[in-house]
Amino acid sequence: xxxxxxxDDIKEVLFTKEQMSETVKRMGEEITRDxxxxxxxxxxxxxxxxIIMADLxxxxxxxxxxxxxxxxSYGSDVKTSGTVKILKDLDRDIxxxxxxxxxxxxxxxxxxxxxxxxxxxxxxxxxKICTLxxxxxRREVKDIKADYVGNIVPDEFIVGYGLDYNQxxxxxxxxxxxxxxxxxxxxxx
Length: 189
Ligand code: IMP
Ligand code: MG
Hints:
This protein is of the alpha/beta class. The chain has four helices and nine strands; from the N terminus they run βαβαβββαββββα. The protein has helices spanning 17-34, 50-57, 110-120, 180-183; strands at 10-15, 40-46, 65-73, 84-88, 98-106, 126-134, 148-152, 158-159, 175-178.
């Protein structure tokens, strides 16, 4: 059971609010440098990337457009099943755009692999991945690699700064490891 105080459910803080700002600033600098003169369209994958998107776009100092996509993956709350479904598609045709997918975390790789497949088929000028976190120990799709990574994280379930467990904890300003007892007993595959 989750307690009424979100803080009680956190085992350990991995990245403070200040560290998150530093990470996003660094990523913004890299993207600003690499996309100079390009037709940049940031594609935020809802809902997990909503915080990084809002912060990252303000650290990008060149013209950029934004769009949003929502996908759902069926499976338990702490694991992706690999079956991905589009809940909300992009508003526009992406042909001719330099697409940068902005995701919260690269875990098994199934979600991003699916997104890369469907978006590449729409003829963008280029397509790359920016992920706030990478959990390489859990990778199942071996050929998926992020071009911009905020931080590598261990094989633990993390929440905060957009990342959820059961749709909660997204509003924590820092990132922490969720106590196992919060999700123990939840339905798993
Ligand atoms: P993948 O398809 O297994 O790579 O899963 C990616 C999605 O799983 C992310 O967009 C998150 O929504 C979710 N996810 C994976 N690991 C975590 C975690 O540690 N905390 C919160 N969400 C996670
Ligand atoms: Mg999620």
